[in-house]
Fold this sequence. Notes:
The structure holds two protein chains of two kinds. Chain A is of the alpha+beta class. Chain A has helices at 19-25, 80-93, 101-109, 130-137, 171-175, 183-187, 190-193, 197-208, 214-225, and strands at residues 2-6, 9-13, 49-53, 60-63, 74-76, 145-147, 154-156. Chain A has a five-stranded mixed sheet with strand order 2-1-5-3-4, sandwiched between helices. The relative contact order of chain A is 0.12. By secondary structure, chain B is of the alpha/beta class. Chain B contains 24 helices and 19 strands. The longest helix of chain B has 20 residues, at 531-550. The mean pLDDT of chain B is 94.
Amino acid sequence: MIHLTIDDKSIEVPKGWTLLDACREHGFYIPTLCYHPALEPYGGCRLCMVETSQDGRKPRLVASCVYPCEQGAVIKTNSEMVVRSRRITAELLLASAYNSPEILALGEELGVKEVRYKLPEENDCVLCGLCVRACKEIAGISAISVIQRGIAKKVAAPFQVTSSRCIGCGTCALICPTGAFKFSEISGIHKETLPEPAYRRRYYRVGAELDLRPNFVLDVTALLATPKGEG
Amino acid sequence: MNHLQSIAEFQTWQKTLAAGWDDSKPCLRVCDGTGCRALGSEIVLAGLREEINRSKLDTPIEVIGTGCPGFCECGPLITVYPQRISYQKIKPNDVSEIVSQTLMGGKIIERLLYTDPQTGGHIRLEPDLPFYQKQKRLVLDFNGRIDPTKMEDYIALGGYTSLVKALTTMTPEKIIAEVKASGLRGRGGAGFPTGMKWEMCRTNVLKVGLGYIVCNADEGDPGAFMDRSVIEGNPHSMLEGMLIGAYAMDMHQGFVYIRAEYPLAVENLRIAIRQAEAAGLLGRDILGTGFDFILSVRLGAGAFVCGEESALMASIEGRIGEPRPRPPYPTDSGLWGEPTNINNVETWANIPIILAHGGEEYAKIGTGKSKGTKIFSVVGKINNTGLVEVPMGITLREVIYDVGGGIPNGKKFKAAQLGGPSGGCLPAEHLDAPIDYESLTALGAIMGSGGLVVADEDTCMVDFARYFMTFTQQESCGKCVPCRLGTKAMLATLERICDGKGQPGDVEYLLELGEHVKNSSLCGLGQTAPNPVLSTIRYFRDEYEAHIFDKTCPAKVCKGLINYTVIPEKCTGCLVCLRNCTSNAIIGAKQEVHVINPDLCTRCGVCMNVCKFDAILVN
């Protein structure tokens, strides 16, 4: 067992747990965006940052979703450094997703007062990578990936045409936290070419039943926000 | 070349080669590195060979294409042996003169010699060049002497004897102890103690029975080219280092990850690997000792972030070159989940030297916690652009003024950017700071991989920071929010300031964002990306404020803040500026004072350059 202190509370967790696991198990609130319990952690959104100090080393921020619980670590989930980091991250997210209700709500929750920089083009995709990972790890298909880099990065199927590997299961759209996922662009090809009718029915039904409007997405977001153990 | 079956066979061969190496034999050594090639050394080399063939000398003189000796400013470089006369800035039409005057007539051609800018005198011999005086050349020692495509040259000068020493007389533990004693720290940027990394890696390899060794040759900092020159000029030194490392950590497979933009380095590396394999120094059962090591080359496809170790490993594995969070560190879980040891080219090239001289002897060079030498590529506003290898602890002043020859045109030194886009700048007040890992970090710069960009009084530090920010912003992989959007927001703010649209609060915003990107980014790229901005604000905040509040650019660089005007008293109405203006912004007639229309003017500065009467003013 690993002993550590989170916000002055001494706790004990099994070896191999991440800090996020420990925080959620013990009821410390940590906002996340790119984290999903069914998927491998990604460490991309940087909202789950917590402050760690150990053995007299200078306190530093680590992403709790990927950082392991270490013996004797002293964690702060709400220090000034943590709060500021989360606030600026949310402000940066609003630089591109400036009209997304989910991100606006996130910004409000994390104390964003003003968005000082906005990209010329609005984009609700926050590149959390959930769709890509869900396609690979849940559906086992890997029909989509992220392409390009930096500010030009986006989610796409190979060669940016509708994917021939996509089975139309809709997991990607279901898991998207902002409703930005362009399901029709990725899965369009099924309508013509999927050869096996039964196969197609089985998967396509799942996709067809999806309601891709934001209220559905809101439900998913609410579901994902539920702390571990309460759902 | 025979496939060597035993240590004894190698030693016999080595002795023959060493006996055959003769520095007193007349020959010409021509730099054939990328820098000199860009200046035409290939034509010079071919021309020399042809001319020598044609002139029917009594004893044919060999022309050897070598790696980069470092004095790139004066390329193409030729050294005439045995005297070691150094000829510089050779043009193809100098070739016949060199052959007829120097080779046949034994005369020195004065105009091709180095001219000392202080005394105006000529310096004849390579060892006397001021450029080399304060250098301590360990890693670059053979560059400029050996033909990098000939393994025999390297072996003749003692190459691979460290490997043989390791294989025959040292246990892996002893090698690691030796590396630890040397105090060698990673030359790629972070400066992690190499011996300690090896020890951790060896422990893990012994546990799982498998591991990989990697050479990081994905050098991407703007203006830095030391790794390229080491591989181009002396690829076997790096191979030997990797072989020793593999033996010490009980690993049998390795990769060199090198960027595809280095075609000559890739070519020379592949030649070196083929030769080492053919000679039985690489591959199965090396020199009959039973030790196997298989090395492959992986080419990087042009992403700066792939120099970050976790992204590099993802790229080797064939995945997207994106970093992943650490821990786990590569020594625990690297390539395909196995323990992996990654070191930079220069680090590897230091290993044979450490084993040859012993760790303690090596540790005598340098300062308390920074041992050995470091290669810097000195570029920017400096007289002697090039590669310099200096002992740790040397001051910045010595590197810039003694080795680098000072600032061109008598301008004043303003700052030096150390560590490329991940580093910070040091202003004139820190010229006497020793160059070692700790003091540089304390001053807000980093050792980094060894890029050293010099800025003079004509450099605008806001523009300077903007340049590096543009680079990191373009090279951000985009995986994490602070780096993807934070660098973009920082760049947009800097661009606004340079355009003259800076607002009060911009500096504070840059500081806040910079701290955030540093503290919250996923990998080393983002964690260091704000350094150029933060350090320029730290030392040159007044320049930022001049841009924002006074709407002036003190160095007269930022186009949004300067205007070109004609000084009526000086203008003779010669029409030269008018004819050269690309945007037709200058109005005037012969012998009439010209006028520049600021609305059409693009601030290119051509008028100022062509005016013979200094009649153009920038403000």
